[in-house]
Amino acid sequence: ELMETQAFGISQFAEQVNFQRGLEGELSRSIESLGPVESVRVHLSMAKPSVFIRDREPAKASVVLNLLPGRVLGEGQVSAIVHMVSSSVPELAAEDVTVVDQNGRLLTANSAQGNDLDGTQLAYISEVERSYQQRIENILSPIVGRNNVRAQVAAQIDFSRREQTSERYSPNQAPNESAVRSRQLSLSYDGEDPLATGIPGALSNTPPGVAPSPINQPAPEEGDVADDADTEPGALRNLRQEDVVNYEVDRSIEHIQHRLGQIQRLSAAVVVNFRDVTNEEGEVEQVALSDEEIAQIERLVQQAMGFSDLRGDQVEVVNTPFAGDDDTRVEPVWWQHPDNLAIAANLGRYLLVALAALLLYLLILRPLIKRYTQPPVMAAAVPGSTLSTRVGSDEDDQESEAEGEGDDEATYSNKPKRRRKTSLYEHNLNDLREMAQEDPRMVAMIIRSWMNAND
Length: 455
Hints:
This protein is an alpha+beta fold. The chain folds into 4 domains: 12-113, ANL, C-terminal domain (GMP Synthetase, Chain A, domain 3), CATH 3.30.300.30; 115-164 and 255-324, GMP Synthetase, Chain A, domain 3 (2-Layer Sandwich); 337-373; 377-454, no CATH class. It has 10 helices and 12 strands. The strands form 5 sheets. A 3-stranded mixed β-sheet has the order 1-2-3. Strands 4-9-12 form a 3-stranded mixed β-sheet, with helices on one face. The radius of gyration is 57 Å and the shape is flat. The two termini are 72 Å apart.
């Protein structure tokens, strides 16, 4: 609505303010559609853009709720309001939305404000403990009887958010099993004679001539042999060869995100009643279970609860006689029973309301209704009647009395009707007399109107 009525030359700042006000109004209307909410106000702090990351300010919002009398918001409804506001405003995180009621109570609490458990987490812990307790009792009831076993389980549950990242390197592997990353080969030598050089061609590629047979060759002299021995090793004195191979490193990266509500430890306590055995005399007596039976029960309990030594779970099974019902306990009287007292209190409230309504009718409403439902006094005044009949002279009173006393021959059935007419006449007559005394001017005006009508 604000955006529709904007002027043509409005500034950018005013346009931004109108946009923010309009967004706050739309969010207020959406939140007011919830049942327990009577009215609401929304305050937004829009994000301020900046070229520097450290100077950026995130968007924030605050919601003030005015709830109906006797109504409260559940955690799910508060979470719905937070997510609706955060989804409607750009760059607004759910953690930056604050919801407050009319009494100043904070309905949204961040996890950084404290490590206390909320109602949902406590309910989850109770549900887990109840589930394990039912498992233990259900598996032991067919063995020892449903009324002969009691179990309690305590669970420690971790609700913290944890993420784990690990990087592992495998040990050195065989060359044929590893992947080659790079390889470098170098060859170097030192010697007096240079390597074969020159332009390749027919001359350099011509094979040498046929070597003469050593039998036909003359024996070399001692000096020649010594010269050959000295010159051959000098042709290649030092040869160096390097071969460098780089293999890929075998590395594994593992990222683990632990889920909420992991069970850290379980502790179970089981109490089993003695067994009822009939002796030779026919009497029933209680006998303790054997060690083998207790060990068997303990193993069943461990299997039912998922026992784990790594978590440090504990199981304790005790065999002891159960205490009987206390027969000396005095039962309360029926009207002292808590349920009956609650019913009586509810009925008492309804009876008090009914009694108050009855007294209101008898003392206030009934007199008012009776007063306004009586026939008006002026209705008895018929135009054209004489003055004596309206004012009520002594002669009329005597005539009415004579008529009432002289009607001896009337039947019994006409007497009640006669009495009703007489009582109505007397009542109207008394009212006219009171009116004449209280307001004689009005009575004179009425009589004058009658006289003018007769003329």
